[in-house]
Amino acid sequence: MSFLSKAQQPDGNGRIQHVTPESAGWRYVGFDAYLLKKGETLRLSSGDKELCLVLVAGLASVKTRHAEFPGIGNRMSPFERVPPYSVYVPHNDEVEVTADSDLELAVCNAPGQGNLPARLIAPADVGVEHRGKGRNQRLVHNILPDDKPADSLLVVEVYTSEGDTSSYPSHKHDQENSDAETYLEETYYHRFDPEQGFAMQRVYTDDRSLDECMAPYNRDVVMVPRGYHPVATIAGYNNYYLNVMAGPVRLWKFTWEKDHAWVNSDSYPRA
What helix, strand, coil percent values describe the chain, rounded to 5? Predict the structure, then answer.
């Protein structure tokens, strides 16, 4: 099975990515990406899923059955590196998204069973972190972390500058009923600046029964069912990715790969 979903030409609804639990061979995470022209409208039903709509780039007006969020959006490119506008949509809801400009929209989904209301996640609601040091640095926007209300979804976006690594030192979150880890499936929606760029991403386990290395290009999705999953950027190209995670317990607990954990220590970077 391939863990790389290549971006497609927009279909009749503007969809360029479509990852489901069935297509990914797992249980929780779904992901879609859309490119809409100004004035176009997208209608979605959440069904038994909760949704997090992330305005990756562009402006939009969003309606659900009980809420309206007109005129949202604040960046025309994710590489402006400011937190985005997003909208949380509960299960059994209807949503209408109208593009107020050309719009790149990510629709993250996972099982929903609560009674949370639809809500706007404004840039001021997004936690901003700078992680790492040396050649292992990234900027993180915590859109829907585990300390904010949702049933299953965890959503975060990460910026990694050319020549740096992220999701590193290698870490994993694939154990159920563990004190050290939670089981979380994960997707990476990649963007590059300039757009012809690519990165290298490896997905592998300790016993190497899974050991795949991929070169995601612009708007490709990497699926991580288990194991470690570091990303390395290529000189000349800055990288953005949107992560979606979900599992049976809505908590991000992970363990580092022992061989590379020293990169977190005072021994790195070397003098």
Answer: 5, 45, 45
The CATH architecture to which 4-264 belongs is Sandwich (2.60)
Enter the tokens of residue 181: 């880890």
Of 217, 213, 184, 218, nearest in space to 201 by CA: 213
R_g over Cα of the chain: 18
Bridging pattern class, strands 136-144 and 86-89: unpaired
Mean pLDDT computed over 93-102? 98
Supply the pLDDT for residue 246. 98
Name the residue among 198, 241, 239, 209 with its Cα closest to residue 106. 241
DSSP characters over 173-229:
---SS-SS----EEEEEEEEESTT-BEEEEEE-TTSSSEEEE--BTT-EEEESSSB-
Instruction: Give the confidence band of 169 by pLDDT, cuts at 50, 70, 90.
Output: very high
Tens digit of pLDDT for each residue in 123-162? 999 999 999 999 999 999 999 999 999 999 999 999 999 9
For residues 63-69, average pLDDT: 97
CA distance 221 to 242: 9
pTM: 0.97
Q: Measured between alpha carbons, how far is 197 from 112 in angstroms, rounded to an integer?
A: 36
What's the pLDDT score for residue 2? 86
- The alpha carbon of residue 140 and the mean position of all alpha carbons in its chain are separated, in whole angstroms, by 11
Exposure string of 142-159, with b = 16+ CB inside 10 Å and e = fewer, is bbbebebebbbbbbbbbb
Q: Which of 157, 149, 187 is nearest to 77 (CA)?
A: 157
Domain segments of the chain: what residues?
A: 4-264
